[in-house]
Amino acid sequence: MIQHYAGQSNEIAELFYRSIHEIACSAYTKDQLNAWAPFPIDYERWKYRCELKRPFLYVIEDQIAGFIELDPDGHIDCHYVHPNFTRRGVATALLNHVIEIARHLEFERLFVEASHVIRPLYEKQGFVVVRGNQVERNGVVLENWIMELKNY
Q1: How confident is the model at residue 78 (pLDDT cuts 50, 70, 90)?
Q2: What is the pTM of this model?
Q3: CB atoms inside a 10 Å sphere around CB 80
Q4: Rounded to whole angstroms, how far apart are CA atoms 125 and 131?
Q5: Is the dihedral of CA 73, 4, 116, 136 positive or negative?
Q6: Sorting pLDDT into bands at 50, 70 and 90, what band is 150?
Q7: Exposure string for 49-59, b = 16+ CB within 10 A, e = fewer
Q8: Dihedral-angle region of residue 56 (phi above 0 means left; psi in -120 to 50 means alpha; beta otherwise)
Q9: Domains of the chain
Q10: Nearest to residue 69, comparing CAs of 41, 105, 95?
Q11: Within 10 A of 15 (CB to CB), how many other CB atoms are there?
Q12: Burial zone of 98 (CB within 10 Å; 0-12 exposed, 13-18 middle, 19+ buried)
């Protein structure tokens, strides 16, 4: 079930960390993973971020199985699934939810910086690659894909 954020920033921070280190490890190096999701987790930063972004949560049996953020300009920011809930439709349900919101609010487009891991899901939902992208985090370069969905 998809719910609105209600103060679960620590759980979201831990989900993010585990998702990066246990799922994205298939496509990124250890240095890249550590730059992307460093330890120790900065819970204060995540509290601020979640209060600002107000992510949508997919909840299964009172546990956050995944989350996604949608900015007012159509930017999909964080989109992560807990490692215990992969291959259960969580990422797809979250993405479909924000696509429906964007339709309702008549956004001109949706766009995302998709990792190598989640790119196939976005392609399946009709997003197209605009270009490859490189982001530097803590002195380490991460590669992802700028993708967008228009006329949906």
Answers
A1: very high
A2: 0.95
A3: 27
A4: 17
A5: positive
A6: confident
A7: bbeebebbbbe
A8: beta
A9: 2-150 (3.40.630.30)
A10: 95
A11: 24
A12: buried
